[in-house]
Amino acid sequence: MASSSAETYRRDDFGTDDMPFCNNSEDLQEVSILTVRGETGSGFYRLASTILGLLSVLFLVVIIGMSVLYSEVSGRHDRLALNSSQANGELESLKADYKRLAATKSTLHEEFGKVLSEKKALQVRLERAMSQIVALRQEKERSENQLKISRDSCGRCPQGWRLLNATCYYFSDEGLHKRGWEQSRQDCVNKGGDLAVVDTQEKQEFVSEVLQASRLGYWDGFWIGLKDDHTEGVWKWRDGASLERGHWREGEPNDFYSAEDCAATYPTSKPLEAWNDAPCNHPLKWICEMSP
Ligand code: MAN
Ligand code: CA
Predict the structure, then answer these.
(1) Top-ranked range on mean pLDDT: pick from 87-96, 137-146, 171-180
(2) I need a labelling partner for 183 at 20 to 30 A (CA). Which of 29, 47, 218, 288 fits?
(3) CB-CB neighbours of 128 under 10 Å
(4) Does CATH place domain 160-290 in 3.10.100.10?
C-alpha cells in the first residue's frame, strides 16, 4: 500500500504482539526487507519521473524550437521560391527582348549593307557625271575659244590662226605629231609664215594664255624662232636679231649635256617664265606667225 510504503519503520519498533503474523525472526527479516525495498523503489520512480518530466519539457522545447525554425525556414523558402519565380519570369522576358534585339540587329545590318551598296553605286554614277561635266566644260571652253579666235581675227587670218595686233599666229594642232626645230620652221614657211618671234612681253603673255587654255602638260613645248647654235649662250631670233629679254623657266637655259641650242615655250602658270632650251632635233609642237 502507498501509505505503508510512505511510512518508515525501525525493526525494534515492532513487538511480537504488535505483529501477530510474525512469529519468528525470519518473518521479521522478510518484513524488514520488504520495507527497505519499498523505500528504494519510491526514490527511483521519483527520479525517473523527474527525468521523464525534464525530458518531456526538453522535448517540448525542442519541438517548439524546431516548429519555429521550420516556420522560419519555410517562410524563407516561400520567399525564395517567389523570388526565384520572379527572376525566372524576368529572365524569360530578357531572353525574349534579346531575341527581338538580335532580330532587329540583323535586319538593320542587312539594310545597312543595302544602303552601303546603293551609296557605292551612287558614288560611281556621281563620279561618271562629274567627269562628264568636266569634259563638257572643256568642250565648251574649246568652242568659246574657237569662237573668240574667229571673232578676234575678224576674217583677217586664215582658218585656225589667231590675231594679235597685226600678226596672225598658228599653234600647231596636229594631235601627237611633233617635229624638230628645222622641220617645224619649214611647216611655217610652207604655210606662208615663219616660226614666231616672241620679242615683246605682250606677245609672250598672248602665247602663254593660248597654251594655258589648251590644258596641255608642262612638258608640251612649242618651238619659237630662237637659237644659240652659232655661239653658245648668244641667243638670236631666226631673222638675226639679238634676244633682248628672255622668258626662261627657272634654271634655264642650261644647255643640258651641251646639246640644247633651240628655244621652246611651254604651258606654265607663270606666263613670263616659260622658255627652255632643248636639243634642236627634239620632237615638239611649234608656233608660226604671219603678217596678213
Ligand atoms: C629636261 C630637258 C632640259 C631641261 C631639264 C630641266 O632634261 O627639258 O632641256 O633643262 O629637263 O630639268
Ligand atoms: Ca634646257
Answers:
(1) 87-96
(2) 218
(3) 10
(4) yes
Amino acid found at 13: D
Q: How far apart are CA 118 and CA 102, in angstroms?
A: 24
| CA-CA-CA-CA torsion sign (71, 72, 75, 77) | negative
Model pTM score: 0.53
pLDDT over 70 at 244, yes or no:
yes
* Closest atom of ligand 1 relative to the 278 alpha carbon: 9
Q: In this predicted structure, what is the pLDDT of residue 39?
A: 52
Find out whether the beta carbon of 167 lies less than 6 Å from any atom of ligand 1.
no
Distance, CA 284 to ligand 1 centroid (Å)?
Answer: 13
Whether residue 194 is predicted with pLDDT greater than 70 in this model: the reply is yes
C-alpha 171 – ligand 2 centre gap (Å): 21
Could you tell me where the beta strands, DSSP code E, fall in the chain?
Answer: 162-164, 167-171, 194-195, 222-227, 236-237, 262-265, 275-278, 285-290
Q: Which atom of ligand 1 is nearest to the CA of 279?
A: 9
Q: What are the phi and psi torsion angles at 116 (to 5°)? A: -65, -45
**Residue 59 pLDDT class (50, 70, 90 cuts):** confident
Q: Is the pLDDT of residue 40 over 50?
A: yes
